[in-house]
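call fold(seq) -> tokens
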Amino acid sequence: MADTDDIIKATIYYESDVDRSVIDDRRVAVLGYGSQGHAHALNLSDSGVDVRVGLRDGSGSKAKAEASGLAVDSIAGAVAAADVIMMLMPDTEMAAVYSEHVEPNLAPGDAVFFAHGFNIRFDLISPPDFVDVCMVAPKGPGHLVRRTYEEGGGVPCLVAVEQDASGSALALALAYADAIGGARAGVIETTFTEETETDLFGEQAVLCGGTTALVQAAFETLVDAGYQPEVAYFECLHELKLIVDLMYEEGIAGMRYSVSDTAEYGDLTRGPRIVNDAVRAEMGRILAEVQNGSFAAEWVAESRSGRENFHRLEAAGHDHAIEKVGGVLRSMMPWISAGKASVKEASGGQG
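ret:
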């Protein structure tokens, strides 16, 4: 384990900390062959783990999984044949699949794994007390988990144990994380609650919700002020990748060092006016909705009722002027997508 100091609070494991043999005699079922599912199954297989993929009847992913040399079975059949079950279906579908296909086929000594804590944190799934309940959550999309593994690297993972029926659940979770490449980069110990709440908050406040709303609002501000939409697109969306890449590689301070003094001064003096006390207060309310379960309840209800509001909002986003302008401009820059298959094409979509 990495030594901790006053800055680093987490326990971080690397390959030298992991006993890979813990998973050598286990049989793993990966349920779903979407973005994460294909990466987990292929990486496990390449690491010498006995793995099979569990798919719904008629799944369009079956041919792709079999073409990759993986054994494929029904969900119930895969669970019955395995003693480690990794749940990689969409959050809102997982509880029904678990109730119908997984729970009836569990046996003492089995382990139920998740890559996100949503269904455990919000009590949508309640495994029996005779199984281990663990999480191995790569901090990157499935295509990156697969690609970095093939290149000899790995994507950092979070690992957590919610229920340790066997007494060795953490060792098993670490061995699984190592087998998909995570221990090459580092595996951080957390809890289901911490992972779920920080993940949902990060998605809503920064990574997806906050970023897209900021980009669209800035684009609209420039266009409404009479500036050309094409110029607004480059300034508010296209160049964002440059800044994010610099922060990813060097941190915020490194990014500020790399940009002009004018840009850095504008960052330091105007940034706090954008993310002001009102924005911080709203972030607090969003976090509270995650913590108290109201967001989860809202999302589950939305899905069960047909996702009318979700699809309305999604369509509005597709129709936004920034998408139309961006589509034209990106067509003039073929190098952006050269040689890259879409994530859905690479992973086969949801299993």
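The radius of gyration is 22 Å.
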